Sequence to fold (174 residues):
Amino acid sequence: MNNQELQTGDIIGTYYTVIKKLSNGAFGHTYLATNAQNLDQNCLIKHLHPNTSDPNQLQFCQQLFKREAETLQKLARNNPNIPLLIAYFVENGEFYLVQEYIEGHTLTNELKPGQKLPEEEVIELITELLEIVAYLHNNEVIHRDIKPENIMRRSSLTGSKGDLILIDFGAVKK
Fold:
C-alpha cells in the first residue's frame, strides 16, 4: 500500500478526477471529485488507507470497507437521507468509496456551544434525525457514530432548511 494522499487532477478508478481534499480522518481522507460518467454532478471520494501491513489487520479493514459499501448501497436506494453510493473498488491496494456529494454543512455549524435553540427547532431536528435512525434500525443497521460532524444539512434552493443527511457509515453494525 502506498498510503499517498491524492492530489488535484489525480484520476481514480478511470472516471473520477480529484478537485480538492475535503478532510482528514483516522483511516483516510475525503475528496471532492468530478465523475466523467456524469459531468453535471460532483462526487465524494472516500480514500481509505489503513496504517498497517499486517495481513490480518488488512483483511479486517477490507471487511469493514466492504460492509460500509454494501450498507450504503442497500440503504440509500430507498432513503434520500443517506448518500447514494456510486462505486466502490480497490485500486493499487487502496480502498475507495465514491458517493453522492452533499452540498451543505454539518450540524456543527448549527449547534454552537452555549447557544440555545428554540424548542420548535429542537423538536424538528430530533424528529427528523429519529426518522433516519428508525429507517436504519428497520433495516437492521446500527450507525454507531451519530454526532453533529456526521449529520449534514443539505443546502436548499428555496431558502428553507434543507434535509438532514446521515453520513460516515464506517462504523456500522448489522
In short: The beta strands are 11-12, 16-25, 28-35, 42-48, 85-91, 94-100, 104-106, 151-154, 164-166. The chain has a mean pLDDT of 87. The CA atoms of residues 2 and 94 lie 8 Å apart.
